[in-house]
Write a structure and sequence with these properties.
The chain is α/β, with parallel strands linked by helices. The chain has three domains: 77 residues, LysM domain (Membrane-bound Lytic Murein Transglycosylase D, Chain A), CATH 3.10.350.10; 48 residues, LysM domain (Membrane-bound Lytic Murein Transglycosylase D, Chain A); 156 residues, Peptidoglycan recognition protein-like (Lysozyme-like, 3-Layer(aba) Sandwich), CATH 3.40.80.10. Helix content is 34%, strand content 12%. The chain is built from twelve helices and nine strands. Helix 5 crosses helix 6. The longest helix is centred in the C-terminal third of the chain and has 18 residues. It starts with a helix and ends with a helix. Bound molecules: zinc ion (ZN). Zinc ion binds next to loops. Zinc ion (ZN) binds next to loops.
C-alpha cells in the first residue's frame, strides 16, 4: 500500500529534524521499492525517475515490451551505486564487469539519457573495457543569484565554518517553511536545522535553493547529532528520499553551484566535505544510497 501524503508528512516531522538515527532508518527500511503505475506513466519515464535504464526495469519485471497498465505494480531494481567506480573530473570512464548504464549514470549524478546522448549510444548495451565520456552535471542556468544577493547583506563568519555536510530529508515532501515549523515544534528555537535546502519540485521548485534562518544569522546548525560538529558545519539538505530515488538533475546542478560558490567565493578554501553518514558517531544512512557521494568527493575533496 502506498503511504498517503499525510502519512508521509507525519514521517517527515519525525525524520527531518537533523535527519539522524532511528526514525529515518526505520522509515527507509519500511518503504519498499515497488512502484504502482499511474495514469500517464510510461516505462521510460518511470525508469528515468528512478535512475535505472528501461532495459533494467524490463528485466526486473520480466516485461518483453514497453506495455504497462495503470495500477500495475513494478519492482524497481535496487542498484549498488555505492560500489560503482567514479571517473574523476574530465577523465573517461572505463566500463567494468557488472556495470550498467543506470548504475554508472547514478554514481555520477546524471541521467541515463544524458549519458547516452554524450556517447551517441542508441541502446543500453555497453561492454567491459569500453570508455564512456561523462558529461557535466545538469543545468547551465544560474540557480544561485538570490543566494548571492542575500549573502552579500550579511557578514559571513568565514573562518568559523570548517566543513560542509550534505543531507537528504528522507521524505519527498516539504520545503524550508514546513521543515522550519516542524523543527520549531520539536523545540529547536532557531528553526530549520539546515542552512540551505534544495527543493525537488513538489513543495518548492526543482533545484530551488532556500536559505534558512541559520545562514542569514550565521548560527550553528541543528543537523547533526553532535553539538560540537554542529558548531562549525554548514548543513545543506536535499528534499527527497535517496534510499528510493536519486536526486534530480536540477537539484544536483543547484548543489554543485552552491558548493562551488561556498568553497570558491565565500569561504575561499576547500572546506572539508562530507555526507552525513560519513561523520563518526552519527549512526545514519543519510544522504541515502542513491546520492552520488563518491562523485561529489571526487569534485570537492
Ligand atoms: Zn542527515
Amino acid at each position: 500500500m502506498q503511504p498517503t501524503r499525510r502519512q508521509f508528512t507525519q514521517k517527515a516531522l519525525l525524520a527531518a529534524a537533523g535527519c539522524t538515527t532511528l526514525a529515518q532508518q526505520l522509515f527507509a527500511q519500511a518503504t519498499s521499492t515497488n512502484y504502482t503505475v499511474r495514469n500517464g506513466d510510461t516505462l521510460g519515464h518511470i525508469a528515468q525517475r528512478h535512475g535505472v535504464s528501461t532495459a533494467e526495469l524490463r528485466r526486473a519485471n520480466r516485461l518483453s515490451g514497453d506495455l504497462i497498465g495503470v495500477g500495475q505494480k513494478l519492482n524497481i531494481p535496487g542498484q549498488s551505486a555505492a560500489t560503482t567506480a567514479v571517473a574523476s573530473a574530465g577523465n573517461p570512464y572505463l566500463v567494468q564487469s557488472g556495470d550498467t548504464l543506470g548504475a554508472i549514470a547514478r554514481a555520477h549524478g546524471i541521467s541515463v539519457g544524458d549519458l547516452k546522448r554524450a556517447n551517441n549510444l542508441s541502446s543500453d548495451v555497453i561492454r567491459i573495457g569500453q570508455t564512456l565520456h561523462i558529461p557535466a552535471i545538469g543545468s547551465t542556468a544560474d540557480l544561485l543569484s538570490h543566494v548571492r544577493v542575500a549573502t552579500a547583506k550579511i557578514a559571513v563568519r568565514r573562518n568559523h565554518w570548517q566543513r560542509i555536510v550534505v543531507h537528504h530529508s528522507a521524505i519527498k515532501y516539504g520545503n524550508a517553511k514546513k521543515y522550519d515549523a516542524a523543527h520549531r515544534r520539536r523545540g529547536m528555537q532557531n528553526g530549520l536545522a539546515y542552512h540551505f535546502l534544495i527543493g525537488n519540485g513538489i513543495d518548492s521548485g526543482d533545484g530551488e535553493i532556500e536559505i534558512g534562518p541559520r545562514w542569514s544569522k550565521q548560527l550553528l546548525g541543528g543537523h547533526l547529532k553532535s553539538y560540537q560538529l554542529n558548531l562549525s558545519a554548514i548543513g545543506i539538505c536535499f528534499v527527497g528520499n535517496f534510499e528510493q530515488t536519486q536526486p534530480s538533475r536540477k537539484q544536483l546542478a543547484a548543489f554543485t553551484q552552491l558548493m562551488d560558490w561556498l568553497q570558491g567565493d565565500v569561504l575561499k578554501r576547500n572546506t572539508q566535505f562530507a555526507g552525513h553518514k560519513e561523520l563518526k558517531g552519527e549512526q545514519t544512512i543519510c544522504p541515502g544510497k542513491y546520492f552520488p557521494l563518491a562523485a561529489m568527493h571526487a569534485r570537492y575533496d
